[in-house]
UniProtKB/TrEMBL annotation, chain A:
It is found in: Cell membrane. Its main location: membrane. The chain crosses the membrane at residues 249-275, 304-327, 339-359. This is ABC transporter permease. PANTHER family: ABC TRANSPORTER PERMEASE YTRF (PTHR30572:SF4), MEMBRANE COMPONENT OF TRANSPORTER-RELATED (PTHR30572). It holds the Pfam family MacB_PCD. It comes from Actinoplanes couchii.
TrEMBL record, chain B:
Residues 5-220 form the ABC transporter domain. This is ABC transporter ATP-binding protein. PANTHER family: ABC TRANSPORTER ABCH.1 (PTHR24220:SF86), IMPORT ATP-BINDING PROTEIN (PTHR24220). One of its GO terms (molecular function) is ATP binding. Keywords: ATP-binding, Nucleotide-binding, Transport. InterPro entries: AAA+_ATPase, ABC_transporter-like_ATP-bd, ABC_transporter-like_CS, ABC_transpr_LolD-like, MacB-like_ATP-bd, P-loop_NTPase. The keyword Signal does not apply.
Amino acid sequence: MLGTMLGVGSFVAVLGLTASAGGQIDKRFTEIAATEVTVADIGVVGAADKAMSFPGDASDRVEAINGVVHAGRWWQVPLEDPTVSSALGLDSDSGDIQILAMDPSTIDATRPVLGLGRTFDAFHVGRHEKVALLGSVAAANLGITRLDGNPAVFIDGTPFTVLGIVDSNARMPELLFGVVIPAETALDLYGPPTEQRAGMLIETRVGAASVVADQVPLALRPNAPDLFQVTAAPEPKALQTKVGGDLDVLFLALASISLVIGAIGIANTTLVAVLERTHEIGLRRSLGAQPRHIAVQFLSESTVLGLLGGMIGAAVGIVVVVIAAVVQGWTPLLQTWAVAPAPAVGALIGLLAGAYPALRAARIEPVEALRR
Amino acid sequence: MDPVITLDDVGLTYPGPPPVRALYGVELEVQRGEYVGVVGPSGSGKSTFLNVVGLLDRPTHGTYLLDGVDVSTISERDRTALRGQRIGFVFQAFHLMPYRNAVENVALATLYAGVRRKARLAAARDALDRVGLAHRAHALTNMLSGGERQRVAIARAILHRPSLLLCDEPTGNLDSDNAAAVLTLLDQLHRDGMTIMVITHDSTVAARAERLVTIRDGALC
Ligand SMILES: Nc1ncnc2c1ncn2[C@@H]1O[C@H](COP(=O)(O)OP(=O)(O)OP(=O)(O)O)[C@@H](O)[C@H]1O
Ligand SMILES: [Mg+2]
């Protein structure tokens, strides 16, 4: 019975923990994804001269839409094989460092976590200052670990004062490998983007993404909304099921293993009981019990064992899930389908596990069983 | 004459290998109400004989009529059912269920005959009264003395009014006082008309029977 108890218990616990952990992941995914809208500049065929369809005040125009939190343009600065270094003349191995142009609100929309310093703001933008923000990986590659002494990065020899280092962000992981300079400065020095056209990143309030998406093109260019392709959040439900499903398969396999162990436990207990109670079997046979009566007796005993194991296991599992969730600060999530049939599952396992011992018991000859 | 048991040229050879001819050429008739003692030295075939008479084993030779029914040819299933209805066993080792009380142990006798629980328990109380243990009806059997346990076992054996009460060394595990009480009980049951067969190697037990049968090397003499 201990075996099934552990089996069913770990089954329920594992499913509950998976659900709770999965729910946690889902919650994060949902929250990030549901508040994101991206805009791509698709331009017009045959109008290559207009390399940037976003107006200069794109950020303000979109942020005026109800439900938008931050919105800004970004693009890859059109430089062929730029050299990026932390000191003039020192041509460090900078092949992997991307140079990105961004509006200040683009950076805000990525939900950055700043390791050091600060981001640039309207002041730097207005004065077209040569300032930069480094991704943590790029900063490490360049050997910049502190900001006291106002370090600079040199892009093809032009110095940019480093304002801050971004440790992580929620929406644009590639930013960590790059150097970010203000959009206006980039336009001044390097012109509008060429092959890789500009994009826009918008953070909305929860639930506003699709409504915002509908309004963005007209807000950007009332006379040419077709220049933009807007993508609202990926369907959060689909994402959830996929992630949840992957985890469930893994943990269901683990839980099944514990159930098998539980079944072996019951089979063993019942087999021992059969051997210990040979005299009782002999006595019952002498009183007229048919082999099937003996089989049914041991089967029902193992089924009851399984049932009890299932019930206790489910209770233990629930307690484990609740405690674990409280410790982790999660919302405990228990699927009814994992808990409700636990006693029945336990009973079924008891029944299956009891089959072989019951058969053995039924086959014991009364003459043998009564021999002293 | 009303024979309970009629054995005609009954024999049993264990298949082995090597084959053992444990019983052969047994001719015996036991009348209803008789009290028969079966004695013989160790290894003579007493247990084999008990197994055949008690329908626990099937003879390999001859015919056996129990209450006029030929039981040497019936199916395993029918033999089991008939055993439950017609034979009452009393074993040397009692074979009681330790964590059940006396009534429940006695009531077990008619469980497989399909008698309802209430009726079984009522009959069990009557049977305990017959063996003088009405006052111990609700005691757990592992709290009873050896003599009391054997009387509970006898109550269980007579619950369903069997044609034959078959006792295998019924006093083998008892001291002389308790043995005497059990033998007195058997005498009393005999007076009430019960057919009894006691298998023993104890001469004082055998002396209580009204007729003695001796087995030697697998044959009655
Ligand atoms: N299952 C068996 N297979 C083979 N031989 C057996 C088997 N059971 C008993 N025998 C043999 O049959 C003979 C009769 O055995 P049985 O047990 O009937 O003797 P018994 O009179 O009951 O002896 P005891 O007084 O010691 O109990 C013995 O020689 C015994 O070894
Ligand atoms: Mg013997």
